[in-house]
Design goal:
Radius of gyration: 22 Å
Shape: globular
Structural class: mainly alpha
Family: Belongs to the cytochrome b5 family.
Keywords: Heme, Iron, Membrane, Metal-binding, Transmembrane, Transmembrane helix
Strand order of the largest sheet: 1-2-3
GO molecular function: heme binding; metal ion binding
Number of strands: 5
Helix content: 40-55%
Mean pLDDT: 94
Function: May play a role in muscle cell metabolism.
Protein name: Cytochrome b5-related protein
Strand content: under 5%
Distance between the termini: 12 Å
Order of helices and strands: HHEEHHHEHHHHHHHHHHHHEHHHHEH
Low-confidence stretches: none
Largest sheet: 3 strands, antiparallel
């Protein structure tokens, strides 16, 4: 027998007028049309947020134009988010309470419309309580902790340079294949490790992400501003950008190829990095001012890897490009497999379509319900940096180094216990099985 929620959810999913789990919110503008890239996501968000060309935080509008070059995190964050609601980003990226006093200086007026987000940040709620305690705890954490993540990232970069060159240089076929595989693994792990730096203020290691031919700037939108802030909702670009080929939200009419996503992803994932590069390049010609506003020198960094391979080995350029192409493709496959098997794609993680316990949940509690941590990954320092470890805490405090997060776990568990938050742990193997089940899931979870 169908539950009442099942009928309601199915009707909302079919009509596409609102979110399924949060019916007070309109269906995201531009979600299912056009190029489905980060710039389109920002454009659609600006249409829905009621920010009136300014920056919105909660129900107030601010003009921080004069603050752009003073922003400690770099101008880019504010440039990208102009005209949108940045409440979730502001709350999760600024732990120091003094930041709110700085923001007050740029107040313009109150917003005219309600926020187009379901999440709340009450002073006595889960997230703000945790944030206050975390801010106090940070002063007790050893200063040298973050150096390990730096060394791991730098080591992977050097390993990529050496292995990619050897893949071109050696004559023996099997040795060349071995170095190609090693280079692909190094590229994938380096890309994950770089993600640790993309969340922070402008720094040189974040540019290493562009060795994939993708763009760290686009990733700041798709991952940091979308996926991290609106995890597993209709506003999560990392879910919508894969549709209709891969569909991670439960839907009754999910086609067969989407239900077999755990197979089709092996055909789709290898070409994502090159596809993203081509999309950005095409945008120069079809979008007004794209070259001026969104394209820069760092979009060409990906070509440094084949240039390095050619200069060091002296191999024919055709051989270099062939080896490089497959290193990028294999690295893309591994990177995205690591991502989809990290924490979110599991039947126990709440998605749009599942019945929420609260239609206006605390943002931090939603993160806990939308993620599962992997205890085997969290036990290993290298795995934490290269396999998206300490994932729940990372989502809530993205600007902190991954290796700082383990020191906050006892405090986090105390706050979870106090608020009865549904924190869960799993293993990497269980997450892989869960991802298979999630791509096949068509049923909505209810609390009936």
């Amino acid at each position: 027998m169908k539950s009442k929620w099942d009928e309601i959810a199915n009707a909302r999913a079919r009509d596409k007028k609102t979110h399924v789990s949060f019916p007070q919110l309109k269906y995201p503008s531009l979600r299912d049309s056009g190029m489905r890239d980060p710039i389109q996501w920002l454009t659609g968000k600006a249409l829905d947020d009621g920010a009136e060309g300014l920056w919105r935080v909660h129900d107030k509008l601010y003009d921080v134009t004069s603050f752009l070059n003073k922003h400690p995190g770099g101008e880019e964050w504010l440039e990208l988010t102009k005209g949108t609601d940045i409440t979730e980003a502001f709350e999760s990226h600024h732990l120091n309470p003094a930041t709110e006093k700085i923001l007050e200086k740029y107040y313009v007026r109150d917003a005219k419309t309600p926020r187009n987000s379901p999440f709340t940040f009450k002073d006595d709620g889960f997230y703000r309580t945790l944030k206050r305690e975390v801010y106090k705890e940070l002063s007790k954490i050893p200063k040298h902790v973050s150096r390990t993540a730096d060394l791991i990232t730098d080591g992977l970069f050097l390993s990529l340079l050496c292995s990619s060159a050897l893949a071109c240089w050696v004559e023996n076929y099997w040795l060349a294949q071995l170095w190609y595989i090693i280079a692909s693994i190094c590229l994938a792990l380096l890309t994950v490790a770089c993600h640790n730096f993309i969340h922070r203020k402008t720094n040189w290691r974040m540019f290493l992400f562009n060795l994939t031919m993708s763009s760290y700037r686009d990733f700041r939108v798709s991952h940091v501003l979308s996926h991290h802030l609106y995890t597993n909702t209709l506003m999560d670009f990392e879910i919508s950008s894969l549709e209709p080929i891969l569909q991670y939200n439960p839907r009754k009419n999910k086609p067969v190829y989407a239900r077999l996503g755990f197979i089709t992803e092996f055909l789709f994932f290898p070409f994502i990095f090159f596809t993203l590069f081509i999309k950005r390049f095409i945008s120069i010609f079809i979008r007004e001012d794209f070259l001026k506003k969104h394209y820069s020198w760092h979009d060409c960094l990906g070509f440094l890897l084949p240039l390095w391979m050619w200069l060091i080995t002296g191999s024919p350029i055709t051989k270099v490009l062939y080896v490089w192409f497959w290193i990028i493709c294999a690295g893309s496959l591994l990177f995205h497999l690591i991502g989809v098997n990290a924490a979110h794609q599991h039947p126990d993680a709440i998605k749009d379509g599942d019945q929420p316990r609260n239609e206006t949940p605390d943002w931090g509690e939603h993160q806990v319900e939308a993620l599962l941590d992997r205890k085997d990954i969290n036990r290993n320092t290298f795995a934490v940096v290269t396999l998206f470890g300490e994932h729940t805490l990372h989502h809530m405090f993205p600007t902190l180094d991954h290796l700082v997060l383990k020191y906050l776990r006892p405090l986090f568990l105390q706050i979870c216990d106090k608020y009865k938050a549904k924190y869960r742990v799993s293993t990497q193997f269980e997450m892989v099985i869960g991802q298979i089940k999630e791509t096949m899931r068509t049923e909505y979870k209810s609390i009936d």
